[in-house]
Hints:
This protein is α+β, with helices and mostly antiparallel strands and 422 residues long. The chain has helices at 21-38, 51-82, 134-147, 199-205, 253-257, 265-299, 306-323, 331-359, 365-379, 383-392, 396-414; strands spanning 2-9, 12-19, 91-92, 103-110, 124-127, 150-153, 165-174, 184-191, 213-219, 233-247, 417-420. 48% of the residues lie in helices and 18% in strands.
Amino acid sequence: MKYDIKEEQNWRRKITITIPEEDVSSKFDEVYKVLRREAKIPGFRPGKAPLNIIKSRYGKLAEKEVLETMVPDAYTDAIKESGVFPISEPEFSTITIEEGKPIEFSAEFDVKPEFGVEKYTGFTLKKEPATINEGDVDKAYNRIIDQHSSMKAKDEGAAAEEGDIVIVDMEKTSDPDNIIDDEKMTDFTFELNKEVTLPEFTENLIGTKPGDERQISVTYPEDYYDKSMAGKSLGFNVKVKEIKEIVRPELNEEFFKQFDGAKDEKELKEKIRADLLERRKQEIEGDIKDQAVKSVIAANDFELPKSLLDNYLDSVVEDVKQQYPDQEADEAEIREKYRATGIRFIRWNLLYHKIAEKENITVTKEDTDKWLQRFADRANMELEKAREFLAAQKKIQDIKETILEEKVLNYIIENSEIKEMD
Length: 422
């Protein structure tokens, strides 16, 4: 077998392979021997039909068998011998075959792009201040109170007040763009709080009693979470079915101590403040890392193999299908949506490995053990049990990749300027 590899592009290779005539003939003989033994031809006992009849009847089948066996084997052997490492499936040329002649074919495939990484330090990275708004502390505190509150039906004849829960049946009266499919909605719940419910509903339902009806027109804000309804005006006939009031927990020592042993409201808010501050620090750290990634990608441009992006998007499409099995996936839309994310992911993956190689950054057993120990502590597991669990999930290599990426990022950040922002 002879082969020749040419560089079509930085990341694209073309291999041309010639299988000698004697090897091809030997394979034909082998295939015809099997066909002759198994063929059932009138007038001849099994295995006794003349070879010319076998070739006449089964020549095309023999050619197909020879091609399907010899071409993949020759490609695999040539790739192994050449030392190149394809990252995509081969695209074979049209192959013709004729008994008594050599087989010549070519295949194109992608390899990891060859590129240099020139700039990955000396960036200016902005660091936002780690401050906490007291209003956020109060909101978090109130959410805790809400989570530990209960509801009870209001006294008969009592009207709905701000903060109450109103259960209604609704019927569309105006929907020019047919945004909402259902004409009627039963047992719809509103909390009469302008922070969580549109003001048109809150204002119209305060003062109502069970059995009351209201005609309510609503214009949804431009920044509404459901983009199909943003800026749209709809009308509803709303009938009140039930009104409930929220019963707040008794704010005593017993209540507060369930939150990491807090003694009172002041101490609970201090714990909330500390937790929010830690989260804010993590957000800032994440933002600095994101800046570092963007800076490295922008400073080191190179051509990306199409197959890498195709494989990434194939994986995303498959994940979406598995996550939403009952919905018909628009593959083109999914690919377009995640295309930019995929390009960034692949570029950064190639770059941080190249930086690690250049700076001799590696993952040691100590690095892995520290990561596993933190995981074990969070999961309340022994270290070896955690190791066995993650090994069974085939996650150890992923963990090492995470550690390597983290070490490369730390190197980039440590060798860049951190600019404190006001």
